[in-house]
Amino acid sequence: MISLVLLLLSACVAMAQSPGTFTATGNMTTARIEHTAKLLQNGKVLIAGGWRFGENLSSAELYDPDTGTFTPTGTMTAPRFRHTATLLPDGKVLIVGGDFYDSVKSEVYDPYNRHFHIWPLDRQHRALLQCGDLAPQRQSLDRSWDVLPRSRGGRHSP
Fold first, then answer.
1. Which residues contact 94 (CB under 8 A, 6 or more apart)?
2. What are residue 3's phi and psi, to 5 degrees?
3. Statement: residue 72 has pLDDT above 90
4. Which domains does the chain carry?
5. Cα–Cα distances in Å, from 54 out to 30, 108, 136?
6. Is pLDDT above 50 for 12?
7. What are the beta bridge partners of residue 81?
8. What stretch of H or E contains 118?
C-alpha cells in the first residue's frame, strides 16, 4: 500500500515538471501587452513593443529561460503594437506593421549586436528578404508573402 502511494506521488511530481506547465519566473523590465515574443536561435526570447497605460512602446527585452531573467536590449526605431515578428534564417528578426503612427516602416533586430535598424519597404509596403539560396520574398503588412523571380545576378538587396 505504501509503495503504491509513493508511486502515485512520484508520478504527480514528474507531471508537474513536464513540458507545458507554467513556472514562476522573474519580472519583465517593462510591463506590456500586445507585444511580440519570438524565440531566437540562441534560446532566448525577444520581447518587443506593445503598449501599457495608453503608451505605445518601442522598448525591447530578452528573456533568458536558463536564468529566468529579463534584460533590456536595444530600442525599436518606432513604437508599435499588434505587429509581427518573423525569425529569419540568419537569426535576425524582421518586425513589420502594427498599430502606431507610421506602420509602413519595418525593422530588423540583430541579436548579435542587440540593435534594431530600419528595413526598407517597397511601394506596396513589402519587405524584401534574401534567404540564402532561396528565391527572394516580400512580406506585406497584411502578413502575406510573395516569392519574387530571381534576378540574373542571383542576388537582391533591400
1. 84, 85, 86, 88, 106, 107, 108, 119, 127, 129, 139
2. -65, -35
3. yes
4. 25-143 (2.120.10.80)
5. 14, 25, 38
6. no
7. 99
8. strand 115-119
Contact present, 150 and 136 (Cβ < 8 Å): yes
132 grid coordinates = 540564402
What backbone torsions phi and psi does residue 96 show, to the nearest 5 degrees? -135, 145
Angle at 140 between CA 60 and CA 77, to 5 degrees: 30
Residues 33, 81: Cα–Cα separation, whole Å? 8
Residue in this structure with the C-alpha cell 512580406, named with its chain if needed: 139
Give the alpha-carbon dihedral of 27, 62, 38, 126, to 10 degrees: 120
Q: What is the pLDDT of residues 87-99, one digit of tens each?
A: 998 999 999 888 7
